[in-house]
Amino acid sequence: MTYRITLIPGDGIGPEVTGATCRILEAAGAPVEWERVVAGAAAAEEQGNPMPDAVLDSIRKNRVGLKGPLATPKGKGYRSANVTLRQKLKLYTGWRPVSSLPGVKTRYEGVDLVVLRENTQGLYSGIEHEVTPGTIVSLKVSSRDAAKRIARWAFDYVCNAGRRRISVCHKKSVLPLADGAFTDAFFRVGQEYPFIEQEAVSLDDVAMGLTHDPSRFDVLLMQNLYGDIISDLCAGLVGGLGVVPGANVGDRIAVFEAVHGTAPDIAGKGVANPLAVLLSGCLMMDYVGERRVAERVRRAANDVLEEGRHITRDLGGQADTATFTDAVIDKL
Known about the structure:
With 332 residues, this protein is of the alpha/beta class. It folds into 2 domains: 1-91 and 241-332, Isopropylmalate Dehydrogenase (3-Layer(aba) Sandwich), CATH 3.40.718.10; 107-238, Isopropylmalate Dehydrogenase, CATH 3.40.718.10. It has helices at residues 14-27, 41-47, 53-62, 81-88, 144-161, 178-190, 203-212, 224-238, 275-287, 291-307, 321-331, and strands spanning 3-8, 32-36, 64-67, 93-99, 112-118, 128-132, 135-138, 165-170, 197-202, 219-222, 245-249, 254-258. It has a 10-stranded mixed beta sheet with strand order 2-1-3-12-11-4-5-10-8-9, sandwiched between helices. A two-stranded antiparallel ribbon has the order 6-7. A hairpin with a 2-residue loop joins strand 6 and strand 7. Helix 5 (144-161) crosses helix 6 (178-190) and helix 9 runs antiparallel to helix 10 (291-307). It is globular, with a radius of gyration of 20 Å.
């Protein structure tokens, strides 16, 4: 069976890292036919919209997408292309697995946790206005239905992934209604999963605990802004945004993506590290049921990292994008 998958190359280094990922997946035998579409800064310039309807329609049709980093032009009134994508397609779960990699030296070893982020509400709802000159109010939206929806996704994920515990993160001491509702919905759904360990942890304790001992946590569930920040902190535990995968998932649609930025300073130089998009592509293969392809690619990438001879500059090596890509393909 061949899967037709929407490909958004992205801006900056996006075309380079997604191109490398497509080459490796093809070499690994991934049965994929790509449907390429344009979004981000390029789409804004060409079509006046960083997230055109044609992109959304393509993903709705194919139900799976792979996305490079997108830039939204500043100061022109455009809304974030990434936020628009998540909200229009109801991709309510931000899924960020974080694991230590062989050959990538950091202060921590054996990190293996998952951050799940509610993608559609919170302060990213985009509801703000100027109440008096110089005074801005931004509304944090938190609904019971959205909280229960992602809580159920989290519990089902833990069951299927063989994990043990979910920690719901909050700031109830400051936001007793909004964060209290999110936490209450989590435990209400959790009553249906009595065999999964469940706890509520303040965001302060999560941040402190991650820097002291990341192994204390298994799956972290949190609201939009918290998840945006904490997921990047967790990436720093294992080497940075260039080595962690990510995805935005709804009930019927999933988009797998680079979690790093467009890196315009190195765009077009052929030196970008494609690992984050490559590992996101592996998540995508898992999602569509091609687990053997995903595991082959992970093993090959891990072998290259462990040897350390063909790694990119951000990881302490001298290899360019093509050299790293060829090395992974050779391992396959």
